[in-house]
Design a protein that fits this description.
The protein has one domain: 3-Layer(aba) Sandwich (Aminopeptidase), CATH 3.40.630. The chain is built from 6 helices and 8 strands; from the N terminus they run βαβαββββαβαβαα.
Amino acid sequence: MATKNKVIVTGFEPFGEHTVNSSWVAVQELERLGLGEEIDLHVCEVPVEYQAVQNLLPSMWKEHQPQLVVHVGVSGLAKKVTLEQCGHNKGYKRLDNCNFCPASSCCMENGPDCISSVLDMETVCKRVRESGIDVAVTVSKDAGRYLCDYTYYTSLYLGQGRSAFIHVPPLGKPYSSQDLGRALQAIVQEMMKLPELKNTEEGPEHNEHCNHTH
């Protein structure tokens, strides 16, 4: 019997004004919907703490050895579900839920400034739109220099680019938890169809550097 593809999808705990974090609500909705028979879905709630991310992510990648890790976060500025293409190493000056931020303001000492996902988010976005889903989807190259961006960069670094980040709006602005869950399902299913994921299993280390201007 063929082994299932393992996918981990994470959301974040509440922080600041987000007393209910729509990212974790959406991920729980995705867990209820599932990703189909061929995909073994695991979900996890991530603390909004830099040090917790540094502890959690290496064990997540090592123990589960997933084909893909998708992190979901809330953005108070987002009106659409937003696919982030890359994560950034520097510029982390906002305090987390423990009133901590890295002294160096960066994720990885001597790491590249920016790492891009192996997944082409423009392709994913286009295919999700063509599927007729009634949720607006867009692409971004700036995940915001807080725990979202920090988590994404760390995961891209650990997974040689086999990671994705999705920003969702707060609940009801304008989408319900059901809307967001269905959007996540459609997006992750499209990601799993991409040839880039098939090619990375035996391939060289990725860590592709971005070439866009910051």
